[in-house]
Amino acid sequence: MALINIVLVDKSPLILAGLSKIFEDDERFSVMATAADGERFMEAVDRLSFDVAVIGWEMPFMSGRDVLTEIKGRQDPPRIIVHTGSSKPGVARQVLQLGGAGFCSKQDSPQVLVDTVFSVSEGRMVFPFMNMDSASTDSLDSLTPRERDLLASLANGQTNAQIAKEHGISLNTVKFHLKNLYEKLSVNNRAQAVARFLAGGDSF
C-alpha cells in the first residue's frame, strides 16, 4: 500500500507534537511537514505534493476558513480535514460548504482522527450529522462581534459611509468586513444579508 502523505497544522506546539507522533507511529502515513499557522501551511501547499492535511479552525494569520477559501482555486489541491476544539455552532457545516473533506473534534479520540484521515485519503467525506434546517442560525452564529454590529447597521438602512463614521473605522475596513460577512452568510449583497438577519430573529 502506498504511503498516505499528510501535513499537520495546529497553533499548539504540544498538540502538534502529539499528532505527529500518532501518525508517525502508523505505518500507513508519512508526515511530510508540520506548521503552526495557516500562512505556513499555504507555503507547504506551494512547496509540497501531499494527499491530506489536518488543520485547525482558529489559527494565527490565516484561519481555517481563510485556508479553505484560498485553496479552492488551486489545481488538484490536497484534501483538508479541520480538527478543532472550537465550540462555535456551525463550524462543521462551514467546513463542508467551503469544500473541506472532513471534520473532527478535538474531543474525539485520536483513533477517530486517524480513521477520518484514512477515509478521506480514499476519497470519502467524513462529517458529523448536521441538521441542515438550522443553517441560517448557524451562519449568524459564525459572525464576529464586529460583523454582527455591522449587520445590525445594515438592517437599520445605514450606508457604508454612515457605518464607517458610527464605528470609527475606514470605508475600506467596512468593505472588508462586509465582504467577509457576505461570505459567511452565503449571500451576494446587503439586501440578502438583511433578509438573513431578519430571518435569524431571536437567535441574533
Which secondary structure elements does this structure contain, and how are they paired or packed?
Blueprint: E1 4-9, H1 13-24, E2 29-35, H2 38-47, E3 52-55, H3 64-71, E4 79-84, H4 91-97, E5 102-105, H5 110-121, H6 135-141, H7 145-155, H8 160-167, H9 171-185, H10 190-200
Parallel strand pairs: 1-2, 1-3, 3-4, 4-5
Helix pairs in contact: 2-3, 7-9, 7-10, 8-9
Task: Explain the overall architecture.
The mean pLDDT is 86. This protein has a 5-stranded parallel β-sheet with strand order 2-1-3-4-5, with helices on both faces. The N and C termini lie far apart (50 Å). The protein is α/β, with parallel strands linked by helices and 204 residues long. The protein contains 10 helices and 5 strands. It is elongated and about 60 Å long. The protein folds into 2 domains: 4-121, Rossmann fold (3-Layer(aba) Sandwich), CATH 3.40.50.2300; 134-203, Orthogonal Bundle (Arc Repressor Mutant, subunit A), CATH 1.10.10.
What would you say about this model in short?
The protein has helices at 13-24, 38-47, 64-71, 91-97, 110-121, 135-141, 145-155, 160-167, 171-185, 190-200; strands at residues 4-9, 29-35, 52-55, 79-84, 102-105. By secondary structure, it is α/β, with parallel strands linked by helices.
Order of helices and strands: EHEHEHEHEHHHHHH
Query: How many strand segments?
Result: 5
**Percentage of residues in DSSP E strands:** 5-15%
Can you list the strand order of the major beta sheet?
A: 2-1-3-4-5
Number of discrete domains: 2
CATH superfamily of the largest domain: Response regulator
Envelope shape: elongated
Helix content: 40-55%
Question: C-alpha Rg, in Å?
Answer: 19 Å
